[in-house]
């Protein structure tokens, strides 16, 4: 390989080079679950990325999967934005999980266009560590803009999807479902990895 090209590839952590990707160069925030971190490229939720979490219905435990990361980012002084959540964030539970409530921002929006616009602005700002959004349907252009905004702001955009929704532009796709023993987590797609993983997490 041309030495100049090899240097360029090494300098850009976001370029995937098949199985020889340098996961250590990626910025991540720990999930709080050792088994999940071991299955995610880089060892945690990828900052500067768009992640899709597929859920059977709102309130199935999907937020408990993110709570340790939300708590860590908020205590580090980074804002956590909730855009069009299906339920009002419950402050006592968040406080008990170690979340710095002063770093939370909740935005009410009804239209998908407004949800995407707000998420993009917050992601680009650099002040948010994580932006959670619950749209009904976004198009490929909006998904691409969210991914670029997350990269610009070094933030994690988390897009919750219901059955029948799927976005191929997401760098990470995780499917979750509740079970008697906790939360079943399937890593369907992860940038920098060819393998899928299935986990059972006790929450």
UniProtKB/TrEMBL annotation:
Ranges that cross the membrane: none
PANTHER family cross-referenced by the UniProt entry: BLR3025 PROTEIN-RELATED (PTHR35369), TRANSLESION DNA SYNTHESIS-ASSOCIATED PROTEIN IMUA (PTHR35369:SF3)
The organism's place on the tree of life at top rank: Bacteria
Protein name: Uncharacterized protein
NCBIfam families: ImuA_translesion
InterPro entries per record: ImuA_translesion, P-loop_NTPase, SulA_CellDiv_inhibitor, UCP037290
A biological-process GO annotation: DNA repair
Keyword DNA damage in record: yes
Keyword Acetylation set for record: no
Xref: Gene3D superfamilies: P-loop containing nucleotide triphosphate hydrolases
Keywords, alphabetical: DNA damage
């Amino acid at each position: 390989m041309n030495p100049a090209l090899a240097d360029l590839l090494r300098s850009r952590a976001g370029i995937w080079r098949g199985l020889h990707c340098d996961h250590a160069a990626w910025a991540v925030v720990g999930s709080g679950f050792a088994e999940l971190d071991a299955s995610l490229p880089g060892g945690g939720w990828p900052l500067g990325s768009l992640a899709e979490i597929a859920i059977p219905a709102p309130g199935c435990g999907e937020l408990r999967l993110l709570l340790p990361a939300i708590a860590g980012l908020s205590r580090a002084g980074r804002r956590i934005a909730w855009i069009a959540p299906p339920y009002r964030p419950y402050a006592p539970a968040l406080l008990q999980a170690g979340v710095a409530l002063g770093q939370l921002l909740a935005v009410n929006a009804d239209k998908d266009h407004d949800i995407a616009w707000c998420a993009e602005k917050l992601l680009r700002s650099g002040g948010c560590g994580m932006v959670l959004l619950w749209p009904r349907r976004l198009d490929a252009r909006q998904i691409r803009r969210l991914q670029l905004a997350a990269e610009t702001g070094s933030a994690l955009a988390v897009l919750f999807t219901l059955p029948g929704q799927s976005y191929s532009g997401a760098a990470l796709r995780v499917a979750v479902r509740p079970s008697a023993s906790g939360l079943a987590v399937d890593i369907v797609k992860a940038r920098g990895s060819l393998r899928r993983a299935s986990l059972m997490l006790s929450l």
